[in-house]
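Predict the 3D structure for this chain.
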Amino acid sequence: MSYELIATIILFGSLLGMGVLIFRKIPVLVELPEVSPRKKKGKAPGFFQRELEKIKKINPFKSFSYEIFLQKILSKIRILSLKTENRTFNWLQKLREKSKKEKENDDYWQKLKKSTKNKLKKR
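Done. Predicted structure below.
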């Protein structure tokens, strides 16, 4: 079995499981009231509450640049293609060396065959 088939089976199994869980929880979610949680009045927010508010105020996409993102993606693709090119070059080189060795071995047997024929003719 290939790893791709196993990964596909796991993916669809996970999606099916998530779908079943969501389908089973829809009635419970429908029955919930549509009330937003109220903040506590009169109490100062705790450390974690203040930090959470700061994190919510920060916009992570404010300085997002599509051009830089594209440059990073393209450079990663380029590196990946160079790695595959290098790996295929190494495979090709090994195959050439292997075929060269086999060719040398064939010559060896041919020489041995000729030498035995010559010895037989001399007798």
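The chain has a mean pLDDT of 85.
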